[in-house]
Design goal:
Helix content: 10-25%
Low-confidence stretches: none
Number of strands: 13
Radius of gyration: 18 Å
Structural class: alpha/beta
CATH superfamily of the largest domain: Urease, subunit C, domain 1
Largest sheet: 5 strands, mixed
CATH class of the largest domain: Mainly Beta
Number of domains: 2
Mean pLDDT: 95
Number of helices: 6
CATH architecture of the largest domain: Roll
Strand content: 25-35%
Distance between the termini: 23 Å
Shape: elongated
CATH topology of the largest domain: Urease, subunit C, domain 1
């Protein structure tokens, strides 16, 4: 199904505020009016803010394999933030619990605009959760290479995978501090996260 995603701005495309998605690919970038007129049957999704390529999380292996993401039903006992170190050891984790934790961790990443993660994922239940999530898995940077705080996974162009995020910011530049303000994450043309 054709879908037009509109925002206040599209990163790297001055004067354009919309992308047209067909299946899992971007097929056009332009103005909302122009794309709507030429694609009358397309579904239109309107988002506030800046539409950017999806983000890559270089620390995903650590976030998913060395931290426990509590279930909301455990919030009173464990809190809501990931547990590491001695707190993690005290949980006596098993494979089932690692799988559930990984799925919650992946949802947390999607809520920050992440469309790709860096492995390797050595715990079988974590690897399974990542595979089933549909997130793109990338190789880690070479040892010693600097890892920037914010990494785009690809670019927005016609023919590229429809992997992008929208952030509720007014400017045309995204900073690491802006990622909690993600309003939508699209992966392969599918809306996988939308802020309630």
């Amino acid at each position: 199904m054709l879908t037009i995603h509109t925002a206040d701005a599209v990163l790297g495309h001055s004067g354009h505020q919309a992308v047209l998605v067909d299946g899992g690919r971007i097929v056009a970038i332009g103005s909302p009016e122009g794309l709507t007129v030429t694609h009358l049957r397309a579904r239109v999704r309107r988002w506030p803010g800046l539409l950017t390529p999806g983000l890559r999380e270089p620390a995903a292996a650590v976030l998913l394999q060395a931290a426990y993401h509590p279930d909301p039903r455990e919030a009173a006992e464990l809190g809501t933030e990931p547990l590491t170190g001695d707190e993690l050891v005290a949980l006596d984790m098993d494979e089932t619990r690692w799988g559930h934790s990984a799925r919650r961790g992946l949802q947390r990443l999607l809520s920050r605009g992440t469309t790709a993660v860096t492995g390797p994922f050595e715990r079988p239940p974590v690897r399974t959760a990542v595979t089933r999530s549909g997130l793109r898995v990338r190789e880690p940077a070479a040892a010693g290479d600097p890892v920037p705080e914010l990494v785009y996974d690809g670019e927005l162009k016609v023919g590229s995978p429809a992997d992008f995020a929208v952030f509720a910011i007014k400017g045309k530049v995204l900073t690491p501090d802006d990622t909690p303000r993600c309003v939508a994450t699209v992966l392969g043309g599918r809306l996988l996260y939308r802020r309630a």
